[in-house]
């Protein structure tokens, strides 16, 4: 199973990148009268259709003291509508072998649906119902709250997840971006039906949503059917939304005691947003530092040369309003300090010496060459379309992408490293058996 | 061990639950003079081509004291040949816009790359080179051993559920090598030598003990020429030793408990079952879906939804194994609930499915789920190649073509019969994870 974690990681880098001018990467776009943006691409090879709905209803909209509300709202969408109980919804979906899931992130909630073409109408009606007529039955609320609380407990047995949570808390203190989307046990216990209904009515609005559809169906057919099925879905109040203000926390070292054989380490600081003008230079720089899987410097120095870790990578995750930079790795408790030192040295080295022409060319070649291959399933295409729309990258983004990358010069990378890697601001989180992992006094 | 197969099954469920040849295309089979079988399936829905080489060697072929050898060799296969420098392989692939990786299971070791049609020849040539000329460079041996030990810590030592699966698998099988973990026991990994690896490589890495699967955007004639040119001159090797071990029938339940730092208890039932070569495999697949496929399934409805004693449940028939396998049922226990209550509830549900036939509608629902998932699975070229490879590895890829017809033929009486026969409490091993509290410093 050598390299699966890394493979998965590479596959999940959707959201940056595009290339070659290809019709399949440019969906037909239309806005319905109620404001819903529809992106559709015909893929007639298989009798199936995939939906990806993004809606601005993530945890950043949680009211204070009700952390976890956005997540609970999304989870409850499929647990009861005006005309169907939770069990009826499950029965309907399972009988046609469709998959439907709903969840929330910090910025966005999302609904994913995949079904056979012959069941399109069944699926569309159900999708319309959960978006316009969810009823949040009291019994289901109790059930989902219990389930979320169990999930909150369960994440405590995942050291990687503890390290991520602590890192985000320290990086974005007092901010929704510093809190886990699922909230904490107390906040979740307090959430009531009224708040769920209010959240749903306020944020689940068509003018806050993007729907990307890929599969065996035409744009026109979808548009007609959605207009009909979603005719009762009305625009929201449309109040202007302030962009959230986020200020990053100071450098610090956080040690969490767990009886583990490995130290789970996250080190990092604030990154940039997706709209930042240096976003592409930063991605190229990070590819060389630690984003490029087996081609990266961190992989070389931490794994290949010293055998300190199985998985090590760095990433600049860029969202609408915030971004993070982090290096994540796991190593036996005893070598935690050494691994942190090596990773930090790599950060310093790229800032001081930049990268070689050869490294730069390899990074560009990968980013440009892999682009059309990254979206090789309906699901990945749908997700890509929705993100291009959400981040306002423009319908010509796939055409522009290769040039954006190609134009990057050696000195741009050095400048980006100096500016966006900040060793003096590093937050270091070590979840480990501290007796073994701490430096000896 | 089993958990690795189990893991893989889950992983690929996301990509390709029941992948199969895309509609217009059919698998083309060609066997080269040196015994290397080549399976080609054209699929032109995206510009990707997946190339996979499957060696018929995994932990199943290892001896006591040498566990983890196949997996260790997989890592060392990245340490270069006379033409390719150590760790250069993934760099070359990435520079050409591709992704590459490898994995090991109980039954096989697989190396793969996904690239464009224009570039895939590079992967083919490098793969042929390392089939014949891997250096397994001793200078990298000790570091790589450390990496693998870190991998084991990450996957097993610090992961309570996978630790439970490992120890339960070691009890469910008494004689058959499936009792050993794919990654190997820590002590075995430590004591493996470079000579062990060389011997393993010489014994199993030969064209007549491997096959190639390619799916994607290529022309069969053109790609076959490339494969022939790269692999055709590699000489046939001696026939590798066969694994003749048979697990003796189990008479009486076995129980395992694992006490480990964790938050939630976990339950795991392994029932011995035949692999997919057996005609009962279709009914066993359906039984797994009836028990745990979707939110309307029996286990989910009862344990998760109604009784709220489990956070999640699953049932999996591991038919894609070279030898007799297990049917597994798992449940993650809700906080403050008793594992014994969950075990009783599962026992009672399994008792019912062994006593009364399922309704026609329930059977139809399960068939629809499998059929839909089979079509969704064709969305990914990688997923399709995995399925072809798994079938070829176990029973011959042609079985895949019979799959849906086989599922359609199953009756409620068949499901009842296989449930009676295989879900016998006397033939099961029950593993329970009992969380213990963190020892404070």
How is the topology of this model organized?
The complex is a heterodimer of chains A (441) and B (441).
Chain A: H1 4-11, E1 28-31, E2 37-42, E3 48-55, H2 69-76, H3 86-95, E4 99-104, E5 109-116, H4 120-132, H5 138-154, H6 159-171, H7 185-190, H8 193-203, E6 209-215, H9 219-229, E7 252-257, E8 262-270, H10 279-291, H11 297-304, E9 312-318, E10 323-332, H12 336-353, H13 357-374, H14 378-390, H15 397-406, H16 410-420, E11 427-432, H17 434-437
Parallel strand pairs in A: 2-6, 7-11
Antiparallel strand pairs in A: 1-2, 3-5, 3-6, 4-5, 8-10, 8-11, 9-10
Helix pairs in contact in A: 2-8, 10-13, 10-16, 11-12, 12-16
Chain B: H1 2-15, E1 28-31, E2 37-42, E3 48-55, H2 69-76, H3 88-95, E4 99-104, E5 109-116, H4 120-133, H5 141-157, H6 160-172, H7 186-191, H8 194-204, E6 210-216, H9 220-231, E7 254-261, E8 266-273, H10 281-292, H11 298-306, E9 310-317, E10 325-333, H12 339-355, H13 360-376, H14 381-394, H15 398-401, H16 403-409, H17 412-422, E11 428-436
Parallel strand pairs in B: 2-6, 7-11
Antiparallel strand pairs in B: 1-2, 3-5, 3-6, 4-5, 8-10, 8-11, 9-10
Oligomer: heterodimer
CATH class of the largest domain in chain A: Alpha Beta
Strand content of chain A: 15-25%
Main sheet of chain B?
6 strands, mixed
**Total count of strands of chain B:** 11
What's the CATH architecture of the largest domain in chain B?
Answer: 2-Layer Sandwich
Average pLDDT taken over every residue of chain A: 93
Q: What is the assigned CATH homologous superfamily of the largest domain in chain B?
A: Metalloenzyme, LuxS/M16 peptidase-like
Task: Find the CATH topology of the largest domain in chain B.
Answer: Cytochrome Bc1 Complex, Chain A, domain 1
- The averaged pLDDT of chain B comes out at 93
Main interface: chain pair and counts: A-B, 80 and 90 residues
Give the domain tally of chain B: 2
Mind telling me which CATH architecture of the largest domain in chain A this is? 2-Layer Sandwich
Q: Kindly report the name of the CATH homologous superfamily of the largest domain in chain A.
A: Metalloenzyme, LuxS/M16 peptidase-like
Approximate helicity band of chain A? 40-55%
- Structural class label of chain B: alpha+beta
For the termini of chain A, the CA-CA separation is 39 Å
Radius of gyration of chain B: 22 Å
> Helical element count of chain A?
17
Number of strands of chain A: 11
Instruction: Give the tally of structural domains of chain A.
Output: 2
